[in-house]
Amino acid sequence: xxxxxxxxxxxxxxxxxxxxxxxxxxxxxxxxxxxxxxxxxxxxxxxxxxxxxxxxxxxxxxxxxxxxxxxxxxxxxxxxxxxxxxxxxxxxxxxxxxxxxxxxxxxxxxxxxxxxxxxxxxxxxxxxxxxxxxxxxxxxxxxxxxxxxxxxxxxxxxxxxxxxxxxxxxxxxxxxxxxxxxxxxxxxxxxxxxxxxxxxxxxxxxxxxxxxxxxxxxxxxxxxxxxxxxxxxxxxxxxxxxxxxxxxxxxxxxxx
Length: 256
Known about the structure:
This protein is an alpha/beta fold.
């Protein structure tokens, strides 16, 4: 099998690549940063005896999403993991608009393009796996983290909508969404935020995600605590959810 992993230079992308390599899956790694991917490639090839290819792309640029697809479309990719993304923390009227537009380009547009292109290919042959990385934030309302929460809600809803279409037309194609909570990755540094609740390890989330993907679990929520948060966010009125989330997020202002 061959997997394409975006955002493979660190965090969930890096550790999902490791989890796949453990299972003998060869890899195409893509991200902006080449050096950490080269280190990962060498690690995986020597440790697991699989092949790994590096394709450096900034997927926040729309044209690069199409270029990546053109570069791999004839390589018989079996698995696509859309993991690349980042957050922007702060009051909506104060956060940098260029950073937020970049967030939308990477978290939403890139995922949309790559999902659409590979879903069409996988549908034709009625096989393949697509796992999109959202967040537990997809279920909530995110004052002081508004653009990120909204972007992950888009990924969540898009993925589940396509999954239902494929269930009817190409039932052997897997389409799923990963909704982790806070984890120890570079995310908090890029988002300029510190989390006050306990974080899972990136390795735990990655191994759990790959396991459940191969079991064809449509919505993957790692950990009991995060599952409880998902249920609570569904049951609580939106007004209360917004107030609670604001208080939690506001505490982080003093931690930056």
